[in-house]
Specification:
The complex is a heterodimer. Chain A is an alpha/beta fold. Chain A has seven helices and ten strands. Classes of the chains: A alpha/beta, B mainly alpha. At the A-B interface, strand 6 of A face helix 6, helix 7, helix 9 and helix 10 of B.
């Protein structure tokens, strides 16, 4: 049996009076590639932020590597790509190399010089995501898909076991999306990194992941990817929603 | 020019401020908080007024007021998460209100020299204080450079990589407050934020890395202060205004050069 590495147990969360998650429970096993989908405002990003400890639940428990999230301090084990990251404007003066290097030596008070091994690590990470030629480029001048690959490299620097991604493919063209998914498959299969990705694009993601959770009205539904989920999703997204599928 | 004691003092103090104001300003601009300089400088005015009517050295009261205000802004920023700029307006209003009431309470005739900056009044005591604080500010920014960089482009990821984001934010706010309080003697309360922002604005046009961006901001700041002080001495102009206009001209030149490219 595979190890459970993320567990959400009876979690509720509200923004003021607005309860967005109600008694949500789910678990994710080592090596999974998980998609989290749902209509706008269904608290997909909220759930992701709860899982990494950026938000605290009103009630219920969250465990990372079997440890309650408030006791979890082994940050090297997780990588997180937030929505903010894609909002780099063109003028932001940082090179790809600087962005990737940011994840080295984040602990301790005194700064340390980046050693040769770390430089090699940066090159290796950029090589994995196929962005090594762009090392000196300004991050703001890259396309949406390229930026996301750089953020993956930044996360890979610390050899994380889980990678959380919050809608990384918004505004990214289909060709770059496909390239991004092949990269995700590679790091999922070759490096055995568990992937958890929030997405609004049901059609594409359902074709790529091995577990799919759909959020709606504060509840979470797990989809059996081997069954036709069209009818099921119509209940959540409404009859008028045209859901395209590549599979099922 | 340098045979005069007050000009030598002004140059020393000016160059220190020319280094710290754009350094702090660089992070503020990139975190979209450039208006914080204006807010805190108005609070500094209230601090100066209090110092004058209570006979306490105004720089001390200004530092105290700006630190309280900076911490207040941090607190309000969390409270009004989605309207973060509201925290600046609230503190700005408090600063201006307090300053105007305090100036009406006692003898605050010398306040004009703080509003626009005054070179001839710079004392040895101020030089020592500004130099000491300036070194502390620059040294800690250098130490926190990598963490501040990470927080500047992605605060959430920075937090999840183990960086104590909250504590550093608070500490940085205090640095901003102190920078503003100690800069007011040279450029004046009304113009401090310009020295924090204009060199950075010019730097952003040409910088292609974070490190270079910071370096260019400091270089533009130092050039502005040196050229501004020399011009103000020979042309008998207000020092603060001349420094700010010099840095504005540098910005315009950079923009024109960039357009021509």
């Amino acid at each position: 049996m595979k190890k459970k590495i993320v567990e959400v147990k009876n979690v509720s969360f509200s923004y003021g009076d607005n309860k967005v998650l109600e008694n949500v429970s789910l678990y994710i096993e080592e090596g999974d590639f998980v998609g989290i989908i749902g209509p706008n405002g269904s608290a997909k990003s909220t759930l992701l932020k709860l899982m990494v400890g950026l938000l605290k639940p009103d009630s219920g428990n969250i465990y990372l590597f079997n440890k309650p999230i408030n006791e979890f301090k082994n940050y090297n084990k997780i990588g997180y790509i937030s929505q903010n990251a894609r909002e780099f404007n063109k003028m932001f003066p940082a090179t790809v190399e600087e962005v990737v290097a940011a994840n080295i030596y984040t602990k301790g008070i005194l700064p340390k010089r980046i050693k040769r091994e770390e430089r090699e690590k940066i090159d290796e990470a950029l090589n994995i995501v196929d962005m090594d030629k762009y090392k000196e480029r300004k991050i703001g001048n890259l396309s949406g898909g390229q930026k996301q690959r750089v953020f993956i490299a930044r996360a890979l620097i610390n050899n994380p076991r889980i990678l959380f991604m919050d809608e990384p493919l918004v505004g990214v063209d289909i060709e770059s999306q496909n390239k991004f998914y092949s990269l995700l498959n590679k790091i999922n299969e070759e490096f055995n990194i568990t992937l958890i990705m929030v997405s609004h694009d049901i059609g594409v993601i359902s074709n790529k992941v091995n577990k799919l959770f759909c959020l709606s009205n504060g509840k979470v539904y797990k989809h059996d990817l081997n069954k036709d989920m069209k009818i099921n999703l119509k209940d959540i997204y409404g009859e008028n929603m045209n859901i395209l599928f590549h599979r099922h | 020019m340098l045979e005069y004691e007050f000009m030598r003092r002004s140059f020393v103090m000016g160059i220190i401020i020319a280094m710290i104001a754009p350094t702090v300003g660089y992070f503020l601009v990139l975190r979209r908080q450039s208006i914080i300089g204006d807010t805190l400088s108005h609070v500094a005015l209230a601090g100066v007024a209090l110092g004058m009517i209570t006979n306490v050295y105004p720089l001390y009261t200004a530092i105290l007021f700006t630190i309280i205000a900076a911490v207040g802004i941090e607190y309000l920023r969390e409270k009004y998460e989605n309207y973060a700029e509201l925290s600046l307006s609230i503190v700005l209003s408090a600063g201006v209100g307090l300053a105007s009431v305090l100036t009406s309470l006692g003898n605050t005739q010398g306040i004009l020299s703080y509003l626009f900056g005054s070179l001839s009044l710079v004392s040895n005591k101020e030089i020592i204080l500004v130099t000491a604080l300036g070194i502390i500010i620059l040294a800690t920014i250098l130490i926190l450079y990598k963490k501040l960089f990470y927080m500047t482009f992605d605060e959430e990821s920075a937090y999840l990589s183990g960086i104590p984001v909250k504590a550093i934010n608070l500490y940085f706010s205090i640095l901003v407050a102190v920078t503003i309080a100690i800069s007011m003697r040279i450029v004046g309360i009304l113009l401090i934020s310009s020295l924090m922002i204009l060199p950075v604005a010019a730097s952003l046009i040409i910088a292609n890395s974070f490190k270079k961006g910071l370096l260019y901001s400091i270089v533009f700041g130092v050039i502005s202060v040196i050229v501004g002080l020399i011009l103000s001495y020979y042309l008998n102009l207000a020092s603060g205004g001349t420094i700010v206009l010099t840095s504005l001209i540098l910005l315009i030149i950079t923009i024109i050069k960039d357009i021509k490219k």
